[in-house]
Design brief:
With 442 residues, the chain is an alpha+beta fold. The protein has 12 helices and 21 strands. Helix 5 packs parallel to helix 11. It binds aspartyl-adenosine-5'-monophosphate. The site of aspartyl-adenosine-5'-monophosphate has 22 residues, from strand 11, strand 17, strand 18 and helix 12.
């Protein structure tokens, strides 16, 4: 008999079916036992005799044969795709026995502290609500791809082993590389830009590595970056327009495909007007000062509380939970940023903030070889460290720009998760690489 999935059972009313899955929950009611069987499509209720149910318990892997029957009206579960039916089992095969669970997995919520969620990651990832996070993330990443493919972008695979630090700063993992040394990529930045010299429009979905020295709720040491870069732009605002298109495309796909997952988190797609507002850094800081009295007007960046405040402002006053913040300080940005010709202290750089958190950075990049070389030196880099990049621009690259969205940041923010670690299948941080580093034998 071919396998039937839990969600397909209503189509097979009255038929004999073979189901394969995990015991999600077992409920004993005297002469009758109910099992919620879980497979990749969801849950279905199985009715068994105590003899057939034997010692089955949560997470046992079973093959069950039985007849699909209608549930009595008062027992229909509208929250389940299979909620109109149940399966009366006549044969149960135990395929893989599970050990006793360390906690109850049967509730709608797991209600576990974060360390437990991470210590038991492979088990926790079986819970429907945890799975919903990664279904949303998969749809989000796929929508990013679809949006850019529809605009004639080429997907590329970014290298992870790199010879230099494009973004500057100390947050980098350095490791011995044969007789030399190399770094784990902080960003595919230089590669996506130099590839504009070859393909005009490129994007990549890749891991980035940041040696974040502190534990925060929004930083991982290994994150997923959604990078895009395009050439022949007439203005830096084209980058922002492209990003707006991509983000709205992602929202549309999430609305279409993830209604049930969003509902589990009582989450909604962020509200945005026809045009997402753009506010210059200094103007944003002035608004924050006016609203809160907190004087951040000379700061080089927005602190987390400033990001929250400016998003509150745009939500209340402009009906937008997203806002672009532009014109960060040139000197505080990497060497490739394009200074605003009207005031070169500030750059054509633009971050996207959503519901109080930074979702992305981007902007226009320098394309003139001589200016790039000058910036490389001013920024204290060695030209030979970025030789491949310089080579591309030596041979002609059009005006260009791009952006990078953080997949875990967006997932966390859209679903209202408290910690970015919940939005990473296998989060890495200062204290953990799968297991707590403190638990490893030296
Ligand atoms: P930036 O450093 O701002 O920009 O990174 C882009 C986006 O990636 C996400 N992100 C992170 N997410 C989780 N943990 C981290 N440690 C982490 N670091 C970054 C954020 C962030 O907005 N080269 C530029 C992009 C560009 O200009 O195209 C860059 O890397 O969502």
């Amino acid at each position: 008999m071919t396998r039937t999935l839990a969600s397909q059972t209503p189509e097979k009313m009255g038929e004999q079916v073979l189901l394969k899955g995990w015991v999600h929950v077992r409920r004993d009611h005297g002469k009758i036992v109910f099992i919620d069987l879980r497979d990749r499509s969801g849950l279905v209720q199985i009715v068994l005799t105590p003899k057939l149910a034997g010692h089955l318990h949560a997470e046992d892997v079973v093959y069950i044969t039985g007849q699909v029957v209608a549930r009595p009206d008062q027992l229909v579960n509208p929250k389940l795709a299979s909620g109109t039916v149940e399966v009366r089992a006549d044969r149960v095969e135990l395929v893989s026995k599970a050990a006793k669970l360390p906690f109850d997995m049967g509730g709608v919520d797991l209600n576990l502290e974060l360390p437990t969620l991470l210590d038991y990651r492979s088990l926790v990832l079986r819970h429907p609500k945890v799975q919903a996070i990664f279904k949303v993330q998969a749809v989000l990443i796929n929508a990013f791809r679809e949006a850019l493919l529809s605009q004639d972008f080429l997907e590329f695979q970014a290298p992870v082993i790199i010879p230099a630090i494009p973004e500057g700063g100390a947050e980098v993992f350095k490791f011995p590389y044969f007789k030399s040394q190399a770094y784990l990529s902080q960003s595919p930045q230089l590669y996506k830009s130099l590839l504009v010299g070859a393909f005009e429009r490129v994007f990549s979905v890749n891991k980035i590595f940041r040696a974040e020295p502190s534990v925060t709720t929004r930083h991982l040491t290994e994150a997923t970056s959604l990078d895009a870069e395009l050439g022949f732009i007439d203005s830096w605002t084209e980058v922002q327009d492209l990003e707006e298109y991509v983000v709205k495309y992602i929202f549309a796909r999430l609305s279409d495909k993830c209604a049930a997952e969003l509902a589990l988190f009582h989450a909604t797609i962020p509200q945005v007007p026809a045009k997402i507002p753009v506010i210059k850094l200094r103007d944003a800081q002035e608004i924050i000062f006016q609203r809160t009295g907190r004087d951040c007007r000379r700061e080089k960046d927005l602190a987390p509380e400033d990001e929250r405040e400016i998003c509150l402002y745009t939500t209340e006053k402009l009906g937008s939970e997203l806002v672009f913040i532009s014109h960060f300080l040139t000197a505080k940005k990497p060497f490739y940023v394009y200074p605003d010709p009207e005031n070169s202290e500030y750059a054509y750089s633009v971050d996207l903030l959503g519901r109080g958190v930074e979702w992305s950075s981007g902007g226009q990049r320098l394309h003139d070889y001589a200016t790039i070389l000058e910036h490389v030196k001013t920024w204290g880099l060695q030209p030979e460290d970025v030789e491949l990049y310089l080579q591309s621009f030596r041979y002609g690259v059009p005006p260009l720009g791009g952006f990078a969205l953080g997949a875990e940041r967006m997932t966390m923010n859209i679903l209202g998760l408290k910690n970015i670690r919940e939005a990473s299948l296998f989060p890495r941080d200062l204290e953990r690489v799968d297991v707590r580093l403190s638990s490893l034998k030296k």
